[in-house]
Amino acid sequence: MAYAIIIGGGKIGYYLTRSLINRDYEVLLMEKDPVMAHRLRADLGDVVMQGDGCEPTTLQNAGAERADLIVAATGDDADNLVTAQMAARCFGATRIIARVNNPDNEPLFEKLGVRERINGTAAILNLIGQKVGRASVVLMGVLEHSDLEVVEIIIDERSPLAGARVGDLQLPEDTLFISVLREGRASIPNSDTVFELGDIVVALVPAEMESLLREFVA
Predict the structure, then answer these.
(1) What are the b/e assignments for 118-142, b being 16+ CB within 10 Å?
(2) Which of 78, 112, 128 delimits the end of a domain?
(3) Does 121 lie in the same domain as 140?
(4) Which pTM value belongs to this model?
(5) Domain range spanning residue 197?
(6) What is the pLDDT of residue 131?
(7) Residue 8 pLDDT greater than 80, yes or no
(8) How much is the average pLDDT of 70-74?
């Protein structure tokens, strides 16, 4: 089983951790903030470790020397760069992916040898080599005067949503299912709605969450 260390417990780190667990990775999610780490541990369990990924001792305690993959996914480019450098030089990590929040910092990451750089969960999963977006997700449009996008999700035999109950799903923040088209009839889903093969689901999702929704239904 491959071992992955994710540094940063924000939305990207959280959903990436969940996705890799579902893909049978051994995962450790490291979060520096004690309050956030406690909250994540209540949700994800013992895979969460409170600690600073910029500290060599913390990375060592996390088992960085045996990690097959280290992802520096915090919201701070300086922290991500330091983590990537230490992972490579102190622990010999061969697969390091770093989030770059400010595009102006790309040349610095490149100059310092961080070859795999990304800024979203779906793209990180693509770099890892996992198949993303197995369910068909189509952008239908953007609501005027808002950051909300309207997307269409087709539930086919490959979709993890097939047979899922809406109330049991932990969707990306502020995502809302607004319609289900089944056998030519549209209905408004509720928490007891169970998706079936052939359903076409329409959802509202904040623009910054679209990639997470695509990853969620992959």
Answers:
(1) bebbbbbbeebebebeebebeeeee
(2) 128
(3) no
(4) 0.57
(5) 136-216
(6) 43
(7) yes
(8) 93
75 and 41 in a single domain? The answer is: yes
CA distances from 103 to 46, 93, 106, 217 (A): 34, 24, 5, 28
CB 41 within 8 A of CB 35: no
pLDDT given at position 124: 55
Pair 161, 119 in one domain: no
72 and 146 fall within a common domain: no
Structure-token pair, residue 176: 């809302």
What's the number of domains the chain is made of? Answer: 2
Collect all residues with Cβ–Cβ distance below 8 Å to 98 and sequence separation of at least 6. Answer: 71, 72, 80, 81, 83, 84, 109, 114, 116, 117, 118
Query: By mean pLDDT, which of 63-67, 170-174, 194-198 is the weakest?
Result: 170-174
